[in-house]
Design goal:
- 29% of the residues lie in helices and 39% in strands.
- The protein is an alpha+beta fold.
- Strands 1, 2, 3, 4, 5, 6, 7, 8, 9 and 10 form a ten-stranded antiparallel β-sheet that branches.
- A hairpin with a 5-residue loop joins strand 3 and strand 4.
- The protein is elongated.
Length: 170
């Protein structure tokens, strides 16, 4: 038997098996994840505050401005910068974080994918995927921490003024 005949036979056997494998994956309900679009991310985050246990970040729709404030174990920080989204499901917060010790730039990104109506999120580049919003939102979904009110800008501005006054006093 020639090599060409063997390759043809192997290709034929494989082509007969592929439809069964593909049909099996569909039957098992294993849809491939798709990234959220920039528009979907903009609608989800724009003019909302993402509340964290130690503070939060506000995503201004106008100008894509980002402002954040945290108080981690008594160490207060604030951030000012921009937020960007893309059609690969990525949201990035690019900001300068300032505390009593100084300031530094940071970029923090999160990936978003969906399977059906379930949205998954992970910290980029190598965080673990978790359910961000179930098909029917649950009380403990991270998505519920996006609120349509700015709860951080006033705190960030207050901290900024305190830190500036301390800097002037030095």
């Amino acid at each position: 038997m020639s090599i060409g005949s063997r390759l043809y036979g192997a290709a034929l056997a494989l082509s007969l098996c592929l439809p069964v494998v593909a049909h099996g994956a569909e039957a098992a309900g294993k849809a491939a994840p798709t990234p959220l679009s920039a528009y979907e991310l903009y609608r989800m985050y724009g003019d909302r505050t993402w509340t964290w246990g130690t503070g939060g970040g506000h995503f201004f729709a106008e100008g894509r401005r980002f402002v954040a404030w945290t108080n981690d174990k008594g160490k207060q920080s604030f951030a000012e910068g921009r937020w960007v989204v893309d059609d690969f499901g990525q949201l990035c917060m690019r900001a300068t974080w300032t505390n009593a010790e100084g300031a530094g730039r940071a970029s923090t990104c999160f990936g978003h994918q969906k399977i059906g109506k379930v949205i998954y999120q992970r910290r980029q580049p190598d965080g673990n995927w978790y359910v961000f919003r179930h098909a029917t939102a649950r009380d403990d979904d991270e998505f519920r921490k996006l609120i349509p009110v700015d709860t951080v800008s006033a705190k960030a501005l207050e901290l900024k003024q305190v830190l500036l006054s301390q800097e002037v006093a030095r």
